Amino acid sequence: MKELDFDVLREKISAQVGDPTFTDGETKKPELNQQFFARFAAAVYKPIFEKIEGAFYLYVPETGLWVRQDEPAMIDRISLLMMRYADETSDSFINRKRNVGTIKSILRFMQADACCGRENAFAHKGEPFIHCGNGVITFPIQDDGRRKPVLMPFDPKYMSRNRTECNFREDAVCPEFLNRLIKPAMSEDDLNHFQQYVGQCLLGVNHSQTILLMVGTAGGGKSTAVNIIEKLVHRQNCTELRLEQMGSRFETQRLLGKTLLTAKDVRSDFLSTKYAFKLKALTGKDTMTIERKGSNEASDICGEYNVIITANNTLCVVLDGDAEAWKRRLILIEYNNPPPKEKIADFDDYLLEREGDGILTWAAEGAMLLLENDGKIVKSDAQKKKVNNLLHESDPVAAYLSSHLDLADRDATVTSEEILKAFHAYCKEQGWTLPPRKDVQARIPDYIFHYYGISKRTDIKRAGTNRRGYQGLRFK
Predict the structure, then answer these.
(1) Fewer Cβ atoms within 10 Å of its own Cβ: the N or the C terminal residue of the chain?
(2) Contact call for residues 149 and 113 (beta carbons, < 8 A)
């Protein structure tokens, strides 16, 4: 604990809340002014009480991090401070009041807004940065309009509680990471999108409001790549994305203090489950209400989490009439190449040990590109096409009916059976799995009414007989 001028602090705080001790008017016994010691501890330790989490944080100069403190740690700190105050002032009465009950009351005073209490204290504000092992990487705009990664010293002003343990060195490289793990698995176009997303994960905020899907070859390196991203971001800043639990009261509490949510090797229906729509709020900077166990209070947080999902099979997305929102959100990295023949145990640790600083420098370049595009990952035409195909395959009936039929005069007709046959041929041409016939038959009337405003009839003439179908509609 640094040297303190007890007289100056006592005079200043006493003017605010009264002297450290006072005499009870009835019993004439001395009493401890708990509010005084709450303000005194705040002046010495400069903690923050994050009201949403119900937790104290202290700044650690050696790491540049604001670190969460549990209640026993805070009780111990206050007790030691009271002991030192008693020694400095030769006041043995204060030493006698160093019990858990009294100190808990002092901590309650410290939670007040007028003392240490703050809400959303660690919300990302101001210029973006990456907190790393040897400083804070900022991205100032240069004279030419470009951004440049610049390493700055630790400072409490960054309000950072998440960092990577790798060090930033401008000359660091990662040839094995790129040439043995990443480039053999994905196209150059995918690599560009991937680099920017990894950079965004290190920034700790989902500026682009996107979700990274890594889909394809089993054993192709997806899990190794995600493990590296998690360890680069630092595992304590990550947690599992549990969509099936997102409807429960306290699931969002798990996300407090995290910046990256991952779901690995998920089933093909992962994005078509009941709470898949919650992903749009988690990544789209929507306000979300959280509840904490043991508390009747609810608080609001901002959904700005980075999300990475991996799967071996094509994912089916529940569109629910919001295909455009999913189109904006998704970035799809396809692993179509055969898995590598040479397998290295714990390849993620191997690469981080040898090239961790280089991977960080590579990711910082991705963050720089992202920020130069105002926080957007600009999607290539190839990327847009892949996402469109994914969404079309997720709802092939809607994809087909919206693009292969057209309004026509009243003489034009198509039967339900003709639409069904043409749809099946379309799915085979695209290489898509055919949905069950009954499901398709049930959905066609609603979709046709939605897209064209035409209802199904039972009097469409074919070979002299009435068939089910649609009047005023034709194939393109």
Answers:
(1) C
(2) no
To 10 degrees, what angle do helices 222-233 and 347-372 make?
Answer: 70
Question: Which pLDDT does position 113 carry in this prediction?
Answer: 93
What does the DSSP assignment read for 172-208? ---HHIIIIIITTTS-HHHHHHHHHHHHHHHHTS-TT
Residue 445 corresponds to which tokens in the numbers above? 């009337």
CA distance 358 to 208: 24
Query: Which are the contacts of 175, defined by CB distance < 8 A and separation ≥ 6?
Result: 355, 358
381 near 192, Cβ under 8 Å?
no
Distance CA 374, CA 414 (A): 48
The answer, yes or no, to whether residue 1 has pLDDT greater than 50, is: no
Interatomic CA distance for residues 129 and 136, integer angstroms: 7
Angle, CA of 52, 58 and 61, to the nearest 5°: 140
The rounded distance, in Å, linking the Cα atoms of 444 and 266 is 30
Contact in structure between 200 and 372 (CB atoms under 8 Å): no
Helices 437-452, 396-404: axis angle to 10 degrees equals 40
Count Cβ atoms within 10 A of the Cβ of residue 195 and give its class: 0-12 exposed, 13-18 middle, 19 or more buried. Answer: buried
CA 134 – CA 169 distance, rounded (Å):
9
Share of the chain above pLDDT 70, in %: 97
User: What are the angstrom distances between the C-alpha of 210 and each of 187, 201, 217, 306, 409?
Assistant: 20, 11, 23, 8, 43
pTM (2 decimals)? 0.86
- Nearest C-alpha neighbor of 454 from the set 391, 396, 417, 412: 412
pLDDT digits (tens, 9 = 90+) for 200-233: 999 999 999 999 999 988 888 899 999 999 999 9
| Predicted pLDDT at 296 | 62
- Alpha-carbon distances, residue 401 vs 417, 429, 473 (angstroms): 14, 15, 11
Identify the CA nearest to 167 among candidates 136, 202, 198. 136
| C-beta neighbour count of 393 within 10 angstroms | 18
- Residue 32, SS3 per DSSP: strand
